[in-house]
Amino acid sequence: MNYVLLKKRIENENKKTILYGLNENTEKIIKKKISKKIIGVSGNEKETGKLLGKKFFSIKKIIKKNILIVITAKKPTNIVIFNELRRLSNSSTVSICDIDGKNFDKKNELNFKSHYKSILDIKKKILSHDVISFDLFDFLVERKNKSTWGQIENIANELVKTNKLKKKFVKERLIAEKKISKKNNTFSLNEIYFSMRKKFKFNKKKENKIIKDEFSLDVKRMYLRQEIKEILLYTLRYSLF
Predict the structure, then answer these.
(1) Distance of CA 178 to the CA centre of its chain
(2) What CA–CA distance (Å, rounded) separates 133 from 46?
(3) Do 41 and 22 form a contact (C-beta atoms < 8 A)?
(4) Between the CA atoms of 99, 228, 153 and 196, what dihedral angle is there, to the nearest 10 degrees?
(5) CA distance 21 to 72
(6) In the chain, domain spans
(7) Least confidently predicted of 31-35, 46-50, 103-107, 233-237
(8) 144 exposed, middle or buried (CB, 10 Å; 0-12, 13-18, 19+)?
(9) DSSP the chain
């Protein structure tokens, strides 16, 4: 992330700025205080209140305003977010850039006519089949951090702060996940924390709180792919059940 280039872009735009993404990059930019034009953050419709003094904004309220949106996610997640924002926003008033203040390359832009033609084709195929299955992660729902281990590490660091855990918890949380994933393809947070119970001497109450906190932090780092949601709702509408 280049703070100098980002500051230059923000200052050169005759617009107020929103940071899109509830992540470490957003926090770093706010703490650096690079521009007074940054008025808030967005990225999760359920969020209310403030982040480090910056107000949360619903994306629905800002996509039609004269504003600069800085996508703070890393590649390739930022490209996915860029295309979704471009589809929703008024391109004549909304400017979008990455964390270095750069515009997104045109080769990353979806051809929305062909994109939505393909969605219509999918809907037609749905009507001709009896069973339709939807994968959850990386299809209907995507995590903002594409790296599974990076996601776990970020969340574990948050848990250390909020639950007053030892710093070695981060490393042990990663090890526990790797060990259990070698034995089973599917497993729960309860199983992961059960394997860590002896090492950290969690009582049941504290263990349940940490599990609940981790689940909440994980959900906050996800977003729904609207085009897949549209297909899912279409499928349910024409379901026999």
Answers:
(1) 23
(2) 28
(3) yes
(4) 170
(5) 5
(6) 3-108, 112-141+222-237, 146-220
(7) 46-50
(8) buried
(9) --HHHHHHHHHHSSSEEEEE--SHHHHHHHHHT--TTEEEEES-TT--SEETTEEE--HHHHTTSSEEEEE-PPTTHHHHHHHHHHHHS-TTTEEEE-TTSPPPPGGGS--HHHHHHHHHHHHHHHHT-S-----TBTTTEEESS--HHHHHHHHHHHHHHHHT--THHHHHHHHHHHHHHHH-SS--HHHHHHHHHHHHT--HHHHHHHHHHHHHHHHHTEEE-HHHHHHHHHHHHT---
- β-partners of residue 95 are 68
Token pair recorded at residue 128: 């001709």
Q: Answer yes or no: are the C-beta atoms of 57 and 18 closer than 8 Å.
A: yes
Give the number of residues written for the chain.
Answer: 241
Task: State which fold the 3-108 domain adopts.
Answer: Rossmann fold (3.40.50)
Residue-wise pLDDT for 174-225, tens only, equals 998 888 888 877 788 889 998 888 888 888 888 899 999 999 988 887 777 7
